Amino acid sequence: MRTKTFIAFVGPSLFLMLVFIAAPLVTVFWNSFHVTKPVYEFVDVETCTPGFPTQVCTTSRKQLPVLDEFGELVTKTDFVGLESYRNVLELERLWTVLGDWDWRAANNIKFWQALRFTLLFTLVTMPLVIGVGLMIALTVNTTLSAIRGPVIFVSLLPFIITPVIGALSIRWLFIGDGILTAAMEWYTGRDIAMFAQGWTIELMMYLYRVWHVAPFAFIVFYAGLQTVNQDAIEAAVIDGASRFQRLRFVVIPHLMPLIVFVTLIHLMDAYRVFEEIVGFSSQAHVISLQWLTYDFLQPDEAGTRAISRASASAMLTMVGIVVLLVLPLRRAWRDRRGTG
To answer: Which CATH superfamily does the domain covering 108-339 fall into?
Structure first.
């Protein structure tokens, strides 16, 4: 392929990646080491009481933001180094809590509370998504051809639903006098409040994520099952291998590249969990790293945003994703070199 042709094909993609991925990433990295604050000045303000001729005027000194000629706030940017990261991590408070062996108190520190849930959410749902998706794929692969199309369509419905809408739907089933809550209360004869404690909310989030994402794993594994070497399956049957042995030694090794692929996608997506926090309104009990970044960007009473801390939180989230991806990427690289 000629150089000009290659550039014509790849150039637009590279340009868009630089504009929409590389440039924002560099900006976030820069903002994590700098703090932008409004410039304030002290102004003498005179206040007079009504009345004449007994009017009394007093002068007070107030601190007011400086405005430019267009009425916009004047700001200044200072380099703060790792200060924003320290404010997010709160390591001194963490060491104090751990020194007292008060593990529950560590959950009150926002970043570590968000990190705990994000890691559990990612690592607990990952094998469930892969297992449920593989089970559905194997089941659909063995069903009659006449009903296979409708079964695939029904299996994909949870994945088609918008994440926030799906989370809200599950929440409405369990909140207050929701249908499922009312059914459980009728069956147990006790009042049930699924949103009154954190662990029940987390459990519903896990179940929702598996229900929502497992169809993606199913369709990937189902496509892979169509390429399984039938001669190897027949040879295993002749050798007396059971169904489980055929699955373990023939089917799963064949699907292993797809399992690694689904693992990579799930790790990147689940570690950035945000929709479930919004849909389940779990901020009082459960937060994620992505939601923590969003919370830093909310304006305070003065209308300012903690952009530096939000940037530091975003960078820490990216570091976490990279760490989680190391093992699957190494496995994919070994498999690639083994087949190259």
So the answer is: MetI-like (1.10.3720.10)
